[in-house]
């Protein structure tokens, strides 16, 4: 391999990028835009759930219960008096995602120490929000129920009986790595992997196909430039752009989304370099195989975005997928890169823990480079 010829191809590709502002804009501005949009729009946090309350009791006990929902940051309470038709209309118009119905005898039952029942209605058209809101409501009502029970015992039997009523097990959960359970702290690292995978493959998927469509590939073939030199020369400029995109993504995660970066920055960029190399080589492989820019662009998008978004563990836990789908996820490179990023960002661990994912990611990059070179030689033949 001649490094002089490789550098000449890299210089030629760099000049083409600089003379095409659209490609340069797509390479730099698009990742930033995607991270910005997805980072703010894609969230699994459920806060400020609109809660409609129909208080038929109007008692101090019901007002105390309502105040507990109002005091929670998870609910935005609004009182309704139109009955079930009003609650149904509120849910139909998305004015409320949940409704609390307090019966007429609620205050009397609480005062007498008898079991009191309240009804929680949930909008099942948004099952994720409904499930989470149900858990939040259960927490509020459980705390209220314990408060009422202890207060009743205090009034009737004294503090000793109240102490005996307390549960023998006192569970005090503590969350590690993501103390406040903010979804952005694990979505942003995964999002970086998805965006870089898509952008890198899209960039190089057009390079060789463009040469074939413009008729310049025959000129390159007639020169002393060999296949590995051509592939390597075309990869170098886009590798620099891809690493710059990673740099921008890390800056956005740190200063815009405030995601904690607890691990090694050097390890982060090293693993990113391996991943970018594999993604770029995959795009080149697609470009060599198709010889058509439109087809290459579409194929690159389908083979990168959908698997990276759905089958990498970015949003949906892989262990919850059907077994055949779990098997397929092993060939999705973003799966390993996302696991690396989340561990580096949130856990601060190193290669002593992440050696397996790093090895598989390296195997992906090496395999894509080898396949791109073999496919290019086959096309020439």
Describe the structure.
The chain is mainly α and about 375 residues long. The protein has two domains: about 240 residues, no CATH class; about 120 residues, abc type-2 transporter like domain (abc type-2 transporter like fold, 3-Layer(aba) Sandwich), CATH 3.40.1710.10. About 70% of the residues lie in helices and about 5% in strands. The protein is built from 16 helices and four strands. The chain has a four-stranded mixed sheet, sandwiched between helices. Strand 1, helix 3 and strand 2 form a beta-alpha-beta unit. Helix 8 runs parallel beside helix 12 and helix 12 packs across helix 13. The protein is elongated, with a radius of gyration of 29 Å. The mean pLDDT is about 85.
């Amino acid at each position: 391999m001649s490094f002089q010829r490789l550098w000449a191809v890299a210089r030629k590709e760099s000049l083409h990028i600089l003379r095409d502002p659209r490609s340069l804009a797509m390479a730099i501005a698009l990742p930033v835009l995607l991270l910005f949009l997805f980072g703010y729009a894609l969230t699994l946090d459920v806060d400020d759930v609109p809660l409609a309350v129909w208080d038929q009791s109007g008692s101090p006990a019901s007002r105390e219960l309502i105040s507990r929902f109002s005091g929670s940051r998870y609910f935005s309470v609004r009182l309704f008096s139109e009955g079930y038709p009003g609650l149904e209309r509120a849910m139909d118009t998305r004015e409320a995602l949940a409704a609390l119905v307090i019966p007429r005898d609620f205050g009397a039952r609480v005062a007498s120490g008898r079991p009191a029942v309240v009804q929680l209605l949930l909008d099942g058209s948004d099952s994720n929000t409904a499930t989470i809101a149900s858990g939040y409501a259960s927490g509020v009502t459980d705390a209220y129920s314990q408060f009422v029970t202890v207060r009743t015992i205090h009034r009737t039997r004294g503090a000793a009986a109240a102490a005996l009523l307390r549960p023998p097990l006192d569970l005090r959960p503590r969350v590690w790595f993501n103390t406040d359970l903010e979804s952005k702290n694990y979505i942003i690292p995964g999002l970086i992997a998805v965006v870089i995978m898509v952008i890198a493959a899209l960039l190089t998927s057009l390079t060789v196909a463009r040469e074939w469509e413009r008729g310049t590939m025959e000129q390159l073939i007639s020169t002393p430039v060999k296949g590995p030199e051509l592939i390597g020369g075309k990869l170098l400029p886009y590798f620099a752009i891809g690493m710059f995109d990673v740099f921008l993504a890390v800056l956005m995660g740190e200063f815009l989304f405030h995601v904690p970066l607890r691990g090694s920055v050097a390890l982060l960029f090293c693993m990113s370099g391996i991943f970018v190399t594999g993604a770029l080589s995959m795009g080149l492989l697609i470009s060599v195989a198709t010889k058509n820019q439109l087809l290459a662009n579409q194929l690159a998008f389908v083979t990168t975005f959908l698997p990276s978004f759905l089958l990498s563990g970015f949003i949906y836990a892989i262990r919850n997928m059907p077994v055949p789908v779990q098997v397929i996820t092993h060939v999705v490179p973003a799966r390993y890169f996302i696991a690396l990023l989340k561990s580096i960002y949130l856990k601060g661990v190193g290669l002593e823990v992440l050696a397996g994912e790093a090895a598989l990611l390296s195997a992906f990059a090496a395999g894509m480079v080898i396949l791109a070179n073999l496919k290019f030689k086959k096309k020439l033949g």
